[in-house]
Amino acid sequence: MEDDNIQVCIRFRPINERETKSLTNCRSWRVINNTITSTNNEQQYTFDHVFQPCSKTTDVYNIMAEKISCGVVDGYNGTIFAYGQTSSGKTYTMKGCLDEQGIVTMSIHDVFKRIAEYPNREFCVRASYIEIYNENIVDLLQEAKQLETLKIHEDVQRGVYVGNLKEQVTQRPEDAVQLMEQGERLRHFGGTNMNEKSSRSHTIFRLCIESREMIECKNEEPQYGPIRVSTLNLVDLAGSERVSHTLAEGVRLQEGAHINKSLLTLGTVISKLAEGRNGVHIPYRDSKLTRILQTALGGNSRTAIICNVTPAPVHFDETHSTLKFANRAKNITNDAHINEILNDQVIITKMKKENDIWKDKCMELEKKLEQVSNESNNIAAIRKMRDEHGFEMLNQERLLRTQFEQEVIKVQNELSMRYETHLERMHVDLQEVYKKIKEEVKKEFDESLVNIIQEKENAKIEIAELEARILELEAREQKNLLDNDPEQQFLLHQKIEELERENRMLNIKYSRRRANMSNNQVG
Ligand SMILES: Nc1ncnc2c1ncn2[C@@H]1O[C@H](COP(=O)(O)OP(=O)(O)OP(=O)(O)O)[C@@H](O)[C@H]1O
Fold first, then answer.
1. Which end of the chain is more exposed for a tag (fewer CB within 10 A), N or C?
2. Which positions are annotated as binding ATP (predicted)?
3. What three-state secondary structure class fits 368?
4. What ipTM was reported for this prediction?
């Protein structure tokens, strides 16, 4: 199922002689890429595709219609229609002219080309052609019944359909094109002030395509798949017209009123659908056109609307009105899906086929299940291995940790033992050093003591000598005193004092030395 917006494009036709002459209104349109802006910049519209006056119908077909035409062969309903004011180029686009094929002919050829791509399908193509003229449905393929108007019916199986409509089976594209041309001759045309050959009716050329696939051939009896039924509506609308422009009167005026009324209903249907509100009443039944095209508008169909406009300033308002219509229509969402009909035979065949498919799937699943259970066994084994391995790893880790801790304690003990030995050794060494120093100091002390004793002895000798001399001098003094020589006495007295000083100094020196030595001995 698809969720497709209605495809909308704008096609500008070249300006014609009549329009060139009547420059009554200076406002016009300019196109840049796919945006159309009024020359006074007041209006602007953007579309997926805007075709300029120089574009060919083939360009329009390739972009807007090809997918829809081919899709019909695949079972999708399709509708392509041309919309626009009178003389804007709708019939030119849909039916073509001597120089250029129209979209109807191109679609017919593509449908048959596509059919040829499915050799395993049986196809039946039926063509019909109707016009809605003054709100009457006319069968354009039944010349004799020209005046008979057809009725619209609706049932569950067929949906909305036109009763008593001639549907011509066609096997070649040329036949279908010929039917279209044949019907075209019966269509209501009329000259107006705006178009010498103005379509006075809406036309719908329809191809109905049924197909079924040949699945297999058992006992020379072919088995078929479901039947696909789809329709392609190729619609050429009559153009909206202003009496002031067409100058219509009498029959033309009455036709114009019907045309405008049904186009107004189409506009209302488009507006309501574009609003997208759920449950809103859509007035399909207000005109034959919208009733017949109900599926194409918001229903089960791929739909494209080609909006034809003229760039002529004189038709500025009509072009603007078409652009507004197009702008609303592009918001409508359709819901296209392949249409398949299942009869008993088809249902049984389909179910058998589905059954076979399911059987295959079941077998495939069983195989997968087996694979999965094998894999799950493998996984369990791997898990077990992983667990065992994990346990082993844990033990290993514990062992290593204990070994490490023991090693650490061993190293610590050894270090502390070494440290103590080293301390002891250092202690012994220190004691030895101490002993040596002590011995050396003692030796030094003893030597000093010997020296001091020696010095003491020497000093004693010196003192004795000095005392002896003092005695001698005293004796001399006694003698001198006796001689009464005062000068001699003075000199002698001085000498005695000097000797006594020396004696005192020696005593002091000696006592200091002794004090030092006794200190050293204590240390
Ligand atoms: N793209 C185009 N290139 C050249 N000429 C064109 C083009 N489109 C339209 N014309 C010419 O413009 C004129 C009007 O075109 P046409 O009849 O297709 O308009 P219309 O919309 O079908 O009008 P009506 O609604 O009145 O039937 C015709 O002469 C047609 O050949």
1. C
2. 84-91
3. helix
4. 0.98
